Amino acid sequence: MTRLRSALRQISRVTAALTGGFALLLLSGCNKVHQVFSLSGPQSTMVTAGPVAERQWDLFMITVYVCTFIFIVVGAVLAYAQIKFRAKSEADEHAAPPAEAGHGNPFVEIGLIAGSVALLVIIAIPTVRDIWYTHDVPEDEKVGAMDVTATGYQWWFKFDYPTEMVKLPSGGEAPLSTGNELVVPAGIPVRVQLRTVDVIHSFWIPKLAGKVDMMPNRGNFLWFKADKPGYYYGQCAEYCGESHAIMKFRVIALSGADYVKWLDNQKKSARTVTAQSLADEANVPHFKFASLKDVGRNSTLSGSPDFDADPFAAWQKMQAPETGESAQLIAAGRKNFSDKTCITCHTVRGHEGIGIAGPELTHVGARSSIAAGVLENTSERLHQWIKDPAYFKPGNKMYHGGYIDVTTGQPKFTLNDAEIDTIVAYLHSLK
Ligand code: HEC
Ligand SMILES: [Cu+2]
Known about the structure:
By secondary structure, this protein is of the alpha+beta class. The protein contains 13 helices and twelve strands. The protein has helices at 2-27, 31-36, 51-84, 90-95, 106-135, 256-267, 275-281, 305-309, 311-318, 327-339, 379-387, 389-392, 417-429; strands at residues 146-153, 156-167, 173-179, 181-185, 190-196, 201-205, 209-214, 220-224, 230-236, 248-254, 369-370, 375-376. A hairpin with a 5-residue loop joins β2 and β3. The structure holds heme C and copper (II) ion (CU).
């Protein structure tokens, strides 16, 4: 009997803890709680920024409310029984045999079944409604919706804009393509075709929409809309190999006018810097690039106070050329980019780069992140990445196959710090 009593006490404690947890979840509909408990981070699903994520969150909360109701009713009956029928003294425990179990009361049983069905229906109706809603762009918004194709690679994302054609040096045309940063207009539904070239990945922008798998030999899609201009974090959500956890991307939503400006610039071939072009541009006001902080290789990966404070502002700054560019350094970088075989895997439209095994780099200088959203695109991060990509992303295919021969394990070229500096200057000139 003492064991039974201590077991009951244990149950009450667990019940109290669970109730506390549920109360927290219930309260999490409120913003203050998000801040206090840090639930509003960059990849929070609780602070939504578009209708699809909002529906997903609301549906989750409906389920939480219904479950909480069941929990409270069952908990109350359990507590009532525990208190009412407990032995009030030592003597009590031996006095009477346990009460005989009653046979089922048909009214209670039918009532319980009807109650459960009613609760399930309460969950089912919004579930079915939201499955339809999140599946595809609503009919009345289809006109004006835009299409992009996202392709998963181990371990980065490629984004193609099928309706935005760019001229190729060969004279032909191809859809505009970017790596790891998807730029979209705010307030317009975006339908994302999901593809993969290797294993299964999953596309997820926690504040906007997701997750839907990118499957070999199968066309999936999802849609999302960003309510307002902003900077959002994305993540591969299906285990896909060594660097799965750091297979990320960014979504930048711009106002209509800014988006058009961005598109116009992206469609241009790579920017070529010469002493003459710099002189010509001298009269155009440039932003001042934020001073680079001395971040050690072992400090946080994302690590730049500038980006951490306001990634959207940091992204906007990246759009303009840096001050103090050196035409000589950039030209040397462009040559090194060829000599060190970088061009075999990366496209720089209009320059020598023609490879497609890695992300397209035509405008990489205007991107806020590199290495699939893992590192901020500062000069020293870019330097560190080029120096030792495998340090940041285990298994990555730039190092294995690009830097070293995978069969012999021998390096394919040498690359010293001075050479890397020229490449950094070159890549950052590609605005
Ligand atoms: C064997 C092909 C290959 C070669 C050669 C190669 N890269 Fe890469 N590169 C990749 C791949 C693949 C990625 C994506 C890695 C990841 O995020 O998993 C990448 C990523 C990058 C990125 C980050 C781009 C982004 O959007 O995140 C930069 C910058 C870059 N490479 C520069 C270089 C430079 C400079 C060289 C020459 C020294 C080079 N690469 C040589 C395949 C290659
Ligand atoms: Cu993945």
